[in-house]
Design goal:
Elements (H helix, E strand, L loop, with lengths): L1 E5 L9 H10 L7 E5 L4 E2 L2 E2 L1 E2 L10 E3 L7 H7 L4 E5 L2 H9 L3 H16 L6 E4 L2 H10 L5 E2 L19 E5 L5 H17 L4 E5 L14 E4 L5 H8 L2 E4 L9 H8 L4 E3 L14 E3 L3 H11 L5 H18 L2 H13 L4
Parallel strand pairs: 1-2, 1-6, 2-5, 6-7, 7-8, 8-9, 10-11, 10-13, 11-12, 13-14, 14-15
Antiparallel strand pairs: 3-4
Length: about 325
């Protein structure tokens, strides 16, 4: 019996912690599984049991984050568990410091203090190699790389890219996503009056009072990847801080969407392709959109993004990610 624990000091129902865990656990590679949590959470239709029912049983996987205040105690109690923490926080706060110096510096100092309390023998799992190597350099030599996977759309992908529509998705109360959405709305107001703009994801309705008539809000879609496949817009991600894997980019790729993004929107597992354009300035966003909107570009744009969708579907399945996690569980004694 596999025991899985969710641990956090904030509501995680709409977080990447739950969505990642749900995808990994849904693949059925682990056999019978029990789920426990210190906060309310539902995984694949099952409510997590309270911690009181765990008793003295061992825990195999903990889904949490590195800066969780009780993580040192969990590592002490469950030394053989794999702690799926997602990203390496020092890398995240250093990226924040580039644009918000005081906030990034103070947060990095707080993070360093918390990391000092954490046993370096902990088996921490990160979603990018960059984050794993950052943890290894700090002394967590048993750190693992368990990448983010992506689910294929369950609806047909629109036959042609709609180069006059733009989309950005995410949890919009996560500050990097909120900042990216505000930047996109600013560009849309000044340069993109003839484009449809979609904001899709949790708390997108926070922007209702800020939007122009060409901006459409979708705060509660059943599936972001299906939304992208049905509309097939240009996906524009202007995230300028953060670490970890960029699952929003993977979703756009597997849904056949061309992508305009900042370098911070990518991780090393995502290779540049003809339909991924990296930008740094607002003018570049507008220029690339105008170029892709030319009728002479439509067939090539559609064909190349379809090829990328097929490649992503083949090489980044959640089943392969779940198997990597299973392999890590089998190697815990090393």
């Amino acid at each position: 019996m596999l025991n899985v624990l969710f641990a956090a000091d904030f509501p995680i129902a709409k977080s990447g912690i739950v969505s990642t865990a749900s995808s990994i656990l849904s693949e059925g590679v682990f056999g019978p599984t029990r789920i426990f949590s210190n906060v309310p959470v539902h995984i694949n239709g099952e409510s997590a049991l309270p911690l009181s029912e765990l008793g003295g049983s061992p825990v195999d996987i903990v889904f949490t984050h590195t800066e969780y205040s009780e993580l040192p105690a969990l590592v002490l109690n469950y030394p053989n568990a794999i702690f799926h923490v997602g990203d390496w926080p020092l890398r995240h706060w250093r990226s924040v410091r580039r644009t918000q110096r005081v906030k990034g510096t103070l947060a990095a100092l707080r993070c360093l203090w918390r990391l000092r309390r954490l046993d370096k023998r902990a088996r921490l799992a990160f979603v990018t190699q960059e984050d794993r190597l950052g943890a290894v350099d700090y002394g967590f030599t048993r750190a693992l790389h368990v990448p983010i996977g992506v689910k294929k759309p369950t609806v047909p992908i629109k036959s042609q890219v709609d180069a006059r529509s733009i989309c950005f998705s995410g949890n919009f109360r996560y500050q990097p996503n909120r900042d990216a959405a505000l930047r996109l709305l600013k560009i849309a107001k000044t340069h993109l009056a003839h484009y449809r703009i979609f904001l899709v994801g949790f708390y997108a309705d926070d922007f209702k009072e800020l939007t122009e008539s060409n901006v459409e809000i979708y705060a509660d879609v059943p599936s972001v990847v299906n939304f992208l496949a049905e509309h097939r817009p240009i996906y524009v991600s202007l995230v300028d801080s953060g670490a970890g894997a960029k699952n929003k980019i993977l979703e756009a790729m597997v849904a056949g969407c061309p992508i305009i993004c900042t370098a911070e929107s990518l991780d090393s597992s995502i290779h540049l392709m003809p339909t991924i354009s990296v930008v740094s300035r607002d003018e570049e966003v507008a220029n690339q959109l105008r170029d892709w909107a030319l009728s002479s570009r439509q067939n090539d744009l559609t064909l190349e993004s379809s090829r990328l969708a097929d490649m992503t579907s083949e090489h980044r399945s959640w089943h392969s990610v779940a198997c990597l996690m299973l392999n890590g569980l089998q190697l815990r004694t090393t």
